[in-house]
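name: query_chain
kind: protein
chains: 1
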Amino acid sequence: MRFWASVSLMLLAMAGTTLAQTPGTASTASKPAVQRRFNELTLAGLRPGRDAVSKAIRLFGKPDTRSADKQTLGWNFEGADGAYYLSLDVDKSDVVQFVRVSSNDGPGGVNLPKHGTFTNHTWVTGRGLYAGAGCGRVVQLYGEPDSRSPSTKGGRQLELLYYAFDWAGADVPQVMEVACSVKEGQKPGRVVEITLAAPSL
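structure:
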């Protein structure tokens, strides 16, 4: 009898321990999930702060435009569905500081040179974002932006998504800004411009 009494007491103690742990388990499950964030290193195959302009010229050919101070370069392409632009800002040592890719629905009066076959998937970020992608793809790839703000460009209503990457260290690009067209009726918003910068904007 004494043995069974001991077993009974032991089972009651174990049950009490299990009940005491259950609320702790429930409270852990109810904690909000930590938001995942991802930084970016490259755009159009170029890493701001690291790559020289000579790499861009090897990749895309001679630029179509270069500013008088030699620090802003541009390439213009015509795709099947519109015009595409690549713009770089470089420092005095010709190291790329800003990379910007953009698109619009047509040439808009710009005489675009022919650089061979071009698709809007050519200039992508390291994680696969490109001009023309759905705006929802931005958050899927990088998490929620640090800020969102309305903007306009060429009379077009846009939303700017701003990401600061200083949390990832000083040796990576510090900022990415993505401009998205605003959803119109059944037409979803699309990425129209991506900027990746070594310094803060």
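note: Residues 2-30 form the longest helix (29 residues).
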